[in-house]
Each structure stands twice: as C-alpha cells, then as structure tokens.
Amino acid sequence: MEPESTLTTCYRHPKVESHVRCTRCDRFICPGCMREAAVGHQCPECVREGARSVRQARTAFGGRISAVPLVTYVLIGLNVLAYVGELVRPAIVDRFEMLGAGLVGPDGGHYLWQASYPAELHVEGVVDGEWYRLLTGAFLHLPPTGGTFGILHIVMNMVSLWNIGRMVEAQLGRVRYLALYLLSALGGSVLVLLIAPYDPTLGASGAIFGLGAAYWVLARRLGADMAQVNRFMAGLLLWLVISAAMTSWEGHLGGLLTGGAVTLAYAYAPRDGRRALVQAGACAVLLILLVACAWAKVTELTGAR
C-alpha cells in the first residue's frame, strides 16, 4: 500500500505547492497570493472582503478625508483654461459672460436692453434662453488690459481660491465642496439677474465669497479660535464694500449668502444616517429657489416687451 500524500497546494494555483494558510479563511496560499496582514498573511479574496467591511474615514461634516485638494486643482485649471480661451478668442467673453438682458445689432454691437427695440436688434442674455450664462460667467475673467484690474482679476481670484478652497475642501470632501462652489457661483449670478440684469458681469468672485462664508461657518462649528477667522471675515466684508464701485457687488453678496446657507445645512445636519440626505435635500431646495427666482425675473423682463 502506498503512503497517503501530504502535499498541499495553493487553493488558487493547484499546481503550486504551499505550506502557508490564510489567517482569515485558513486556506493554503502560495507566495504569489500572500498579502501582508497585521498577523501572518491573507489571501487576495480576504483582503478585498476586509477592505469592503472597513468603514471609510469621514470628516466632521460627512466628507471623505483626502490629502489632495483635487477639486480645487480642477477648478483653478478650468478657470485658467477659460482665460487662455479668452485670449485666443475674445468673442468668448461676449458669448458666455453673465448677462440678464441685452440687445445685439446686425453689426455685432451690443446695446442696452429696452422693452421696445428696433426690428434689426436681437435679444441676448438669459432672457433669450441662454441660461448657461448663470454658470459660465463664473469661469471667465477680465482680459489683461480690461476693466480696473486687468490680469490681476484672475490672479487675485485664483490665489484666493487656492488659499481658501483647500481648507474648505479638506473639511467638506470633494462632492459637498463642489456643490458648494457651484451653488455659490449660481447664487451670485442670480442676484445679479435680480438687481442688475442689464449689466454684463464675469469672474469667480461670487463663488469665492461663498467659500469665504463657508470657512467662517465651518470654523465656528468646529469650535476653532475665532479671532483670526473673524478678522478674515471682516476683511472679506470690507472688500465687498470697497470694491462695490468697481466690481459687481451683487455677485459677491449673492455668492456670500448662498455659500453661507449651504454650509449651515452641511454643518448642522443631524450626525446620523440622515445627514447626507438632509445635506443633499438642502442643496436641492436652494437650487430650486435660485432657479425659481431667475425664472420669475426672466418672466418679468420678457413680459414687459
């Protein structure tokens, strides 16, 4: 009689001899299947199963912790890319800047809106169904020799986005942060539409003012030392007042108020299984409110024709 074979092989590679067991499922695994564990080795299947069962680390506001401010990088990249596009093709500004209502002539000239206008003029702006302007204007900036600030317009905005955005993104996580940024940009444009619908505006300032408000709300909710934060907020509000004569204060204020409202919902949502739902619901309600306000204003303007 032949002796019983004591040869053991890897459960994933039956032709490979193995004498090591997975510490989790107790099956034999070969060197190619071994994965380092806290004690011994585990097989690839057990490692994957363990990864699924491990709870992802979250910030105090429900966002996933990430060491890389990816969304801030992308937003800066999009603004710079749009700026390069403006330099190559200046007509992009007229086509995509925020404008509630305006008129354009057959020669391409732009004219101030009026309820009654000659037949050769055509309507442009949000009142002509160009709703995208409510967001695209937030990614455009003054040309190098344009307006009061010129190229400093995009430089100051991108430096501010870099400094504030990284801190806010680290606390909120990427999804919540992106929603905050876009809603703040939209809120700034909507207030421009409501108060100054005939003024063309552009720039990321409204969204950045929203991030500034978010920074203050988050710091207060976390119990941070508010002395420095309050000085920052006072400087932001002072700049809003000082720059009112040179920039669109409506866009700045709209972004500030919207960003503050969104972050209040993020910060004070219940810390249980309902948190994500409450936060998303608050963003949805605010989005509906902004769209409704814009729609009502457009209806008022078009109804006056």
Automatic annotation (TrEMBL):
Q: What InterPro entries does the record tag this protein with? A: Peptidase_S54_rhomboid_dom, Rhomboid-like_sf, Rhomboid_protease_S54
Localisation per UniProt entry: Membrane
An annotated GO cellular component: membrane
Q: Which residues form the signal peptide?
A: none
Instruction: Extract the PANTHER family matched here.
Output: PRESENILIN-ASSOCIATED RHOMBOID-LIKE PROTEIN, MITOCHONDRIAL, RHOMBOID PROTEASE
Annotated family: Belongs to the peptidase S54 family.
Pfam families membership: Rhomboid
What parts of the sequence cross the membrane? 65-85, 147-165, 177-196, 202-218, 230-246, 276-298
Asked if the Swiss-Prot or TrEMBL record annotates the protein with the keyword Protein biosynthesis, the reply is no
Topology in membrane = Multi-pass membrane protein
Q: What is this protein called?
A: Rhomboid family intramembrane serine protease
One Gene Ontology MF term: serine-type endopeptidase activity
Q: Which UniProt keywords apply?
A: Hydrolase, Membrane, Protease, Transmembrane, Transmembrane helix
Residue stretches making up the Peptidase S54 rhomboid domain: 129-265
Biological process per Gene Ontology, one example term:
proteolysis
